[in-house]
Amino acid sequence: MAARSAPSCHLRLEWVYGYRGHQCRNNLYYTAAKEIVYFVAGVGVVYSPREHRQKFYRGHSDDIISLALHPERVLVATGQVGKEPYICVWDSYTVQTISVLKDVHTHGIACLAFDLDGQRLVSVGLDSKNAVCVWDWKRGKMLSMAPGHTDRIFDISWDLYQPNKLVSCGVKHIKFWSLCGNALTPKRGVFGKTGDLQTILCLACARDELTYSGALNGDIYVWKGINLIRTIQGAHAAGIFSMNACEEGFATGGRDGCIRLWDLTFKPITVIDLRETDQGYKGLSVRSVCWRGDHILVGTQDSEIFEIVVHERNKPFLIMQGHCEGELWALAVHPTKPLAVTGSDDRSVRIWSLVDHALIARCNMEEPIRCAAVNVDGIHLALGMKDGSFTVLRVRDMTEVVHIKDRKEAIHELKYSPDGTYLAVGCNDSSVDIYGVAQRYKKVGECAGSLSFITHLDWSSDSRYLQTNDGNGKRLFYRMPGGKEVTNKEEIKGVHWASWTCVSGLEVNGIWPKYSDINDINSVDGNYIGQVLVTADDYGIIKLFRYPCLRKGAKFKKYIGHSAHVTNVRWSHDYQWVISIGGADHSVFQWKFIPERKLKDALHIAPQESLADSNSDESDSDLSDVPELDSEIEQETQLTYRRQVYKEDLPQLKEQCKEKQKSATSKGRERAPGNSIRLHFVHGYRGYDCRSNLFYTQIGEIVYHVAAVGVIYNRQQNTQRFYLGHDDDILCLAIHPLKDYVATGQVGRDPSIHIWDTETIKPLSILKGYHQYGVCAVDFSADGKRLASVGIDDSHTIVLWDWKKGEKLSMARGSKDKIFVVKMNPYVPDKLITAGIKHMKFWRRAGGGLIGRKGYIGTLGKNDTMMCAVYGWTEEMAFSGTSTGDVCIWRDVFLVKTVKAHDGPVFSMHALEKGFVTGGKDGVVALWDDSFERCLKTYAIKRAALAPGSKGLLLEDNPSIRAISLGHGHILVGTKNGEILEVDKSGPVTLLVQGHMEGEVWGLATHPYLPICATVSDDKTLRIWDLSPSHCMLAVRKLKKGGRCCCFSPDGKALAVGLNDGSFLMANADTLEDLVSFHHRKDIISDIRFSPGSGKYLAVASHDSFIDIYNVMSSKRVGICKGATSCITHIDWDIRGKLLQVNTGAKEQLFFEAPRGKKQTIPNVEVEKISWASWTSVLGLCCEGIWPVIGEVTEVTASCLTSDKMVLATGDDLGFVKLFKYPAKGKFGKFKRYVAHSTHVTNVRWTYDDSMLVTLGGADMSLMVWTNEMESYRERRPCDSEESDVDSEEGGGYDSDVTRENEISYTIRALSTNIRPMFGIKPHLQQKEPSADERPPVSRAPPQPEKLQTNNVGKKKRPIEDLVLELIFGYRGRDCRNNVHYLNDGDDIIYHTASVGILHNVATGTQSFYQEHNDDILCLTVNQHPKFINIVATGQVIQQICQLQPLLSTSGMQ
What we know:
Blueprint: E1 10-17, E2 29-30, E3 36-40, E4 43-48, E5 53-57, E6 64-69, E7 75-80, E8 87-91, E9 97-101, E10 109-114, E11 120-125, E12 132-136, E13 141-146, E14 153-158, E15 165-170, E16 173-180, E17 183-188, E18 200-205, E19 210-215, E20 220-224, E21 227-232, E22 240-246, E23 249-254, E24 258-262, E25 268-273, E26 286-292, E27 295-300, E28 305-309, E29 317-320, E30 328-333, E31 339-344, E32 348-353, E33 358-364, E34 369-374, E35 380-385, E36 389-394, E37 400-405, E38 411-416, E39 422-427, E40 432-436, E41 442-447, E42 454-459, E43 465-470, E44 475-479, E45 484-485, H1 489-493, E46 521-527, E47 532-537, E48 541-546, E49 557-560, E50 566-571, E51 577-582, E52 588-594, H2 599-602, H3 631-638, H4 650-656, H5 658-665, E53 676-683, E54 695-696, E55 702-706, E56 709-714, E57 719-723, E58 730-735, E59 741-746, E60 753-757, E61 763-767, E62 775-780, E63 786-791, E64 798-802, E65 807-812, E66 819-824, E67 831-836, E68 839-846, E69 849-854, E70 866-871, E71 877-882, E72 886-891, E73 894-900, E74 906-912, E75 915-920, ...
Antiparallel strand pairs: 1-52, 2-3, 3-4, 4-5, 6-7, 7-8, 8-9, 10-11, 11-12, 12-13, 14-15, 15-16, 16-17, 18-19, 19-20, 20-21, 22-23, 23-24, 24-25, 26-27, 27-28, 28-29, 30-31, 31-32, 32-33, 34-35, 35-36, 36-37, 38-39, 39-40, 40-41, 42-43, 43-44, 44-45, 46-47, 47-48, 48-49, 50-51, 51-52, 53-104, ...
C-alpha cells in the first residue's frame, strides 16, 4: 500500500521569522562576510541583509540559548538546552558542523566565549553548580572544569590581554578565574565600599587588568584585578543586559531601550534611545548589541533586530521581527494571496508576505489570540480569543467589523464555510457555534455533541456538513447550519471535505505513531493535489506523509528546527509553501515544498547533516513492511548479551558477603593445589553471531576469537597461542593495517576493548568507560592511529578513539536498531560508515561528536538491512552487502547501483587491491572486479572439495559464510557452523579449525585409555575429538535430537548418549553406529554412567527426577531410583558398582543401592570412607569448599576429580575453571582460577592419565583442552591465578602498622563535619569581608549580637594585620612513604605536613612553603628529568563531594 512508503516530495526550510531575545543575551553578531548571525528556536540563522537571504544551521536538537563568535568571525559556537545538552561549533559560510562538544554539561549551556586566538572555548552550564568548562574545541576535548557558582552565571569572557585568565559574572557576584594546568581557580571580586553588592549582567575586559561590567541597577562597575575601583553611575536607567567591545570602544544596551557608545577608556561618546525613534515603542528592552565600524546591531526582548548606522542614528532599520514572548497558536493563510496570518498570546496579530519574507501588517488586540481564519474572498479575518470572544477585522486596513463574546473559555478553532456564508467557532467548553456572515455574524446554530474541548474543524465542500475533533480524540459530524449531529455513517460516506485539518479520522490513521497520546499531534493539513499531508507535533517535528494515510505506522519524512511543540501548520493557498509555528519558541517557519524529487536535483537537497537526523524515512513501525528478515539475521537481532551478573560485579558481591567470609576464615583453610593448568588448544570459532572476525597476521598465522579468548593459530604446526585478557564473550575483532596488532571488544556492564600484539600477546591499550553491555564492532583507521567502536546499548553508541593514549576523541548515538559493522574511511581518517538493520549511515568527525547522514536510496532500491560494508578505491565510493543478497554501490551518501551477488544475505566483504571478494549465506565465495560489474570466479564450500590435510570433517555443504579474509595466496573463510577453512585459489578447501554449532554444549566424556573425548550438544551432533597433537575432530554423527550427556563404557568400545527428548542410545565408539536405544522418559536425560569394572549396568538420570538402571547385557531396565525432589544433575558409582551417589537441582545429596534402586541414608562419616569410581559431584562435605562466597548468584555446574584423588577441577556459571585440593573441606576453600570461557562452564573432565583437563563452555560452544602442569617442573606464569575468594593474613604474615594504615579512610575524615568542619576560604586566600555597614540591605548573614555592637561604639578600629607563616614543626610520616627528597644538590629538603609543602634549607634552617592545598597532603614526588628541575607534585585528600577530582598540584620550588 502506498501509505506505507514515505512520500517522494520534500520540504526545504526557506525562512524563519523571529529572533530569540527573551531570556538570552549577547547573541547577535556580524560575521566576516558582513552577514548577521543569531538564533531562534533550535536553528542558527545566518542572514545576509544585502541579498535578503537566510542560511540555517540545524545541528541542534533543542532550543539554542547561547552563542559566541570566533575571533576570526567565520566560526560560530552555539549551546542548547536539554537533558544532555551539547555545543556545536559551525561554519557561518557553509553552515556545516566543525565540532561537537558534549557529555559534560546538564540542563543547558548558558554562556559561551572563545579566547583571543580562538583555540579554546569556555562554556557555563545550567546545572546546580553552574559548571564552568574550558574546551580544546577542535579536538572536542575538555581541558578543565570547575563549579562556577551557587547562583546563575549570566556572562563569561576571556581576558584578551592576559593569557589563561577569565571573568564570569552573575547573581550578586563576579569571579576572576585563572587556568593553570587543568585547574580553574576562582577569586571573588571584592565590592568593598566603592559600590553596592550587585547582580552583574554583562562584562568586557580591557587592558591593564581592567574589567568593565554592567549591573542590574544600570551602573557600570570598573574593576582592577579583583577589586572594584570605581562605578559609572546611571550609565543606563535600568539593568545593562549587553556589553560589546570592539576596536573603537564599547557599546552597552539595557532595559531602558538605550544604546550607549563609549571610547576605549569608557568615556561616553553618544546615546541612542531606540524608544524615541520611528520604530520604537514604550517598553523596548535591549538584550544584545554588536558594534562594528559604523554599524550597530541591536536585538530586543520582543524578537526584533535593528541595524543602526552611526551617523544616521535616529533612523534605525528594522531587519527582523517576530512574535514576543507568549505561546503562539493562531495561524491562517490567505485564500488567494501568498500571505500568512499569525496571532499569539502577545496579543498581536501579524500578516507576513511569503514572497518578500517580511511583516507587512500588525495590529494589537485586547486579548491573547488563539486561532485565526480568513474568509473565502480574503476580505474578513476572524480571530478567536483566549477569553471566549472572537473578533472579525477587515484584512486591508485591520479595522474591526464585529466583536462577539458568547463563551467564557478560549476559542481554539474557527473556520469559514467554503461558500463564505457561515463561520464555525469551536470553544474549549466543547461547543461549536455557527454564525451567519451576511447577518453581521448572528448566531444561527450550535453543535453540542462533544464531551471535551474542540480541537479541529473542517467543512464539507458544499458547506452542508461540519466535522469536528475534540480532546478525547472523538470525530463527530453535524448538519449545517442548524448543528444537528449526524449519526448515520452512510450519510457521511460520500462527503468531500473542503480542507483536511482534523487529526482523527480514517484518512489520517497512519499519522499516529504507536503508543502516542491522543494530543501529541497538534495540527494537520492535507494537500489534495500533491497527495501529501503535513503534521506538527509536541516534539518539535514537522512530518510529511502520503495522503490519504490509512494504516497505522505509516512512513514519513521528518524535519526539525522548532525546539518545542509545533502548534499549527498550514499549506499556502497555492501549495508552494508550508508554514509552521512554534508554541514556546513563538517563531514562524516557512518551508518550500519541492514536489517529486529526482536524483539530479537531490544533490542540492542532500540530507541535511545534523546530529538529530532530519529528512529521514523513519517510521515507528520499524520492520512492518520489510520483507521477512532472513532467519539467521532475525535470530541475531534477538541476542542482547545481557547478563544477570557480570564478572565486574564480583568485587561488589564479595563485599556484601564479608560477614560470611569472616566466620569462615577464622578456621585455617586448605591451601590451593600445587598443580596448575595451562590452556593448550581450543576447538571452536565464533561465527554464529559475528562477522569479519578472522584475519591473517603479518607472519601468516590466523587470528580469530571464541568465548573470551583471542586465538592465534599456526596452521603449519597446528598450534595455538592465546590472548587471555578478556573476561567475557568477545564479540568483534579487527586487525591493524600492519597486521601485527588486533583489537577485540567484549560483553560487560562496562565493556572493554583490548588492543594487543599478536607476536608478544601482550595488551598495548585497554579502552573502557563509554559503552554499555558490550562492543559489537571495531575497526582501525588506515594509519592505525585511531579505532572506531560500536556498543550494544539501546542507541548503539559509536566512539572514535586515539587508542594509544586511551582517549575518546568523538562519540555519537548510532541508531536505535542494531549496527553490524563500522568501517573507517581509508583516505580520510575523520570519516566512517556504519551499517545495520535498515541502516546505512555516513559519518564525519566534528570535535567531540560525529555527524551522520543517512544513505539516500532514491528509486534505485529499498531500505534494506546491511550486513557488511567496505570502502572502495576513492574516498567517495563505498559498498555494502544487504540481507537480500545484493551489493549496494554508494557514491558519497547516494546509492548509485545495486548488483545481485548471492542468494540470501551477503555476510562478509573484503576489498582487494583490484576488486572485491564476498561471502554469503549460500556458502559461496565470489571474486569480483573493481566495479562489481563482473563476477570473476566463485568457490563453493563443499565436502567434495575438502583437501586431505583437513583437521576435521565438513558437516554440511555450502555452510553460511560469516567472515572472509585474503592473504598468503589463500582465501580464509569462517562459517556460521564454527569452522575455519582455507580456500586455495585453485579450488581445494582445507578445514583448519572447527567447533560445535549454535546451541548449548553440555555432554562430555573422556575415553578410559586413549587421548580422545566425546561431546554431544544441542546442535544435534555427537562428535569425537582427538586430544593428541593432531587436535582434530575424528568423527561426527548427526542425531535426531540434541543431547546433554554421554559416557564411554569401561572398555572404551561403547558410547552411551542421553538425549533431550528423554531417550538415550548406545553407539559403537569407533563407528558411532547405533547398538541399542531406549525411550522411557519424557524429560531431558541429564547424566548417564556405566558401572565400573565390566560396565554391567548403565545408570540414566533424567530431569523428571528419576534414575533408571539398565542391565547392559540383557538390555533391560532392572531398577528405578525414586525419592529425589528435583531434577538429577550428577551421578557417580562407587568402586564396587553397588552404590550410586546422586546430586539434584534442589542441592540434595542422595544415595541409592544398585541395581534395584533402593534409597539409602548414609552418615557423613561413612560417606568419606567409601571409594568412588569417579567424583563429579558438587555436593557433600568433601567438596564443601568449592562453593564460592557468592554462592547465591552462581552455581558450581561441574566437577571432576583426578584419578590420584588429589585435585578437584570445577566449572561454574561465571565461566571460571578452578582447581581445589581434594578433599575441599571447610567453607570457601583456596583455589587457582582460570578465565577463558565466557559464560557458564557446563562440564569438566580429566583425561584417563590426568595429563589434560577438558572443559566445555555452554553458550560459547567451545571445547577447551588444558595441560596439567605438576608443581615440580612448572615455570611461574602470570595466568596462574592463585586467587581465592577470601584473602586472609595466614599466608603473608601480619604487621600492625600495615594493617592500621590499610584501615585509614581519608574520605570519611574529610567529609564528616562533626570531626572537622571545613567551611569558607583559608585566611590567606580570603578577600576582606564587607563590614556591617557595608553589608547589602538584603543579606543572608545572621545579625550580629547586640552586645558586640555596643562595645565597639566610639572605639577606633585597629587594622587586622596579616599573619605570615614562619616555621612548621612536624613531618607526615605515620601513614605516608617516600615523601622526603633532596633538592638543589642537597642544599634543601622537601617534604610535607598537614596541607603545606615545606622547603627546608639545611644550612640556615629556614623554611619556605607551598600553601595552595586546602586539605591534608598525602603524597609527594620530585620530577627527576633534567629539563624540569625543582618541579614537585603533591596530592591531597578530597575536600568536598562536589569537587570533581582530588587536587594534584604541580609546583616549581625555587
